[in-house]
Amino acid sequence: MRMRNKPWAMDFLKENNHIVDVDGSYKNNIKEFFNNDNDIHIEVGTGMGQFITTLAKENPDINFVGIEIEKNVLIRVLEKVLEEGLTNVRLLLYDANLLDEYFNEDEVSKIYLNFSDPWPKNRHEKRRLTYESFLSQYKKILNDNGTLQFKTDNRGLFEYSLISLNQFGTEFLEVNLDLHDEEDEDNIRTEYEEKFSSKGFKIYKIVIQF
Ligand code: SAM
User: Fold this and answer.
1) Number of C-alpha atoms within 13 angstroms, CB side, residue 28?
2) Residue 104 domain-assigned?
3) Deepest in the core among 68, 161, 180, 187, taking most CB within 10 A?
4) Ligand 1 pocket check for 99: Cβ under 6 Å
5) Ligand 1 atom with minimal separation from the 50 CA
């Protein structure tokens, strides 16, 4: 997601270091950041944060970590966290490529990937968040009953992810070819989900366990 550069973005994130980790200060120590032992759920590539902030509001006893590589995007999530006064969300300005360096093994109960960049060119396969190197990291940081939930409007990325997850040997708990056909009331829509659904795109969902 591209956003106009905001020169004040980094200062704003740093001023709120009780919510945002901009420099890996809580690497291998996320529990201290939350100061409790609640389960940890993470979203990789939060975008503007509608999904994670709604989920956090509905589940005050779960710790949520929103990971986003773009500072000009992450400030939008921070604004929502502050507006809502959420105490169970922490944000990381971080590249998910190094996820297993940040989290400890078996530390996470759930990972959400929502409308990840599709990277359609073959030569960019390694950047897709369902490429095997990412799956190895998810497997490492998820606990035994941990799940990965993936949603997309992109048919190509959906098919690629099905194959990649299958080749990795994951167990499929759910594969939905049209999530909004009979939308579950507890589905939380992301900003991209609303945009593409309103244009008539089908929304695909996969849930797996390693
Ligand atoms: N999840 C949001 C939604 O559904 O509305 C945003 C979707 S947007 C297409 C993908 C987001 O993932 C962008 O904000 C992008 O900056 C972020 N992203 C892409 N690669 C990433 C990475 N390696 N680590 C962290 N964030 C990443």
Assistant:
1) 1
2) no
3) 68
4) no
5) 5
Give the whole-angstrom CA distance, residue 57 versus residue 49: 12
Residue 96 Cβ < 6 Å to ligand 1: yes
Instruction: Report how far ligand 1's centroid is from the alpha carbon of 70 (Å).
Output: 8
Q: Which of 117, 144, 181, 184 is catalytic?
A: 117
Torsion of CA 76, 79, 80, 85, to 10 degrees: 160
With a 6 Å cutoff on the Cβ, whether 115 touches ligand 1 is: yes
> Residue 167 belongs to a domain with what CATH number?
3.40.50.150
* Any atom of ligand 1 within 6 Å of the Cβ of 77: no
Residue 1 CA to ligand 1 center (angstroms) comes to 6
Those residues whose C-beta lies under 8 Å from the C-beta of residue 36, and which sit 6 or more positions away, are: 63
Query: What is the distance between the alpha carbons of residues 92 and 68, in angstroms, rounded to a whole number?
Result: 6
Same domain, 122 and 210: yes
Is 23 known to be catalytic?
Answer: no
Which domain, by its residues, includes 142? 117-210
In this structure, the answer to whether residues 187 and 124 fall within a common structural domain is yes
What predicted TM-score, i.e. pTM, was given to this entire model?
0.97
